[in-house]
Amino acid sequence: MSNYRIQLEYKRPEYEAVDSQKKIFFIFFTAVDEYVAWLEMHNRRPRTVQSNRGCLISMSKRVLDTLGDCTFDQIGEQEINDLLQSFEGLSEATKKVYLETFGRLVAFETGINPVANARLMWNKIEPTHRIFISADDWPKIKASAQSTTDKLILGLGAYMGLRREEMIRIRLTDIMGNVLLIRGKGHGIDGRVTAKEIPIPVLQYLNDYLADRAKINPLHDQLLIRIDGKYPGKKMDGRSIRFACDMMGKRCGVYFTPHSLRRLYATTMYEATGYDIAQTKIATRHVSTDVLLNCYINVNPARQKEAVDRMLQII
Fold first, then answer.
1. 201, 237: one domain
2. pLDDT at 203
């Protein structure tokens, strides 16, 4: 019996381990419910739980048509390749997400992930359209900030590298002088908590914003609230931050997203540290070097040309 089962039995002692020997057709949806319950029990974020469940339900017909007569412990490399073939017509990125999610479900049932063991070779995934902010665009964006809220959003994103979800999770108690507690990605209700020094420009934006916020005196502890508009005092959410960026973009003629600010931070940090990827990973709180290099750092053509010129001088 795997560790997955032992942990699940602690919550649901009535569970019968022999279910793993039954055909998938009869127990698939029960297995999905139990897996989702296990994720919740281990404090995975609601968005993660919903995403896993949504993927498994979306692929359920293909799974049952292809593997319905198998039991979970009969699934090996051949069965995974058969399931992959059933995903014909879907994008490469969707196939990858579906299979990886299904692999985790099988690992939950058996302790072995057949998708990881299959070592599948994926075609190049279609690139996501990522919006970067250039050095020429940044002064225009800063000048388009009309409110203390706008300025604080820009500061938290471009000078500290916060994601918009991390911005809306900031509480007043997370601000300790010139140090901010950031509740980032990770397991648990608060995710991975990191203490980070607040740069001087952001401190100024923060103090100005807090002065405006105090005039409204909301009853909750979330830092970012609506100060202007129809609903002063209401908590801001991810859409509110995106809307603020869209409005600034329209005013200055530069389209950007909240995550563009984080990419600007990553690119600037990478160059400022002398292209030190280890220091940049620490600053951006990234685990994967590949994701950081491929998704967050914007290659400067002028710097590329300088590098080529130096190489030609050497050889």
1. yes
2. 97
Q: What is the 3-state composition of the chain as percent helix, strand, coil, each rounded to the nearest 5?
A: 60, 5, 35
Q: Quick one: how many helices (H) and strands (E) in the chain?
A: 16, 3
- Domain count across the chain: 2
Predicted local distance difference test score (pLDDT) of residue 302 = 61
What's the sign of the alpha-carbon dihedral 124, 129, 131, 136?
positive
pLDDT tens for 158-195 read 999 999 999 999 999 999 999 999 988 765 566 688 99
Sign of CA dihedral 131, 166, 290, 263: positive
Residues 60 and 157 in one domain: no
CATH number at residue 263: 1.10.443.10
CA distances (Å), origin 30, targets 60, 71, 92: 12, 13, 28
Task: For the chain, give the longest Cα–Cα distance.
Answer: 73
What strand order describes the sheet that includes 175-176? 175-176, 179-184, 192-197
Domain assignment of residue 98, given as a range:
3-118
Token representation of residue 213:
């916020």
Residues 87 and 99: their CA atoms lie apart, in Å, by 9
What letter represents residue 239's amino acid?
R
Q: Is the pTM of this model over 0.85?
A: no
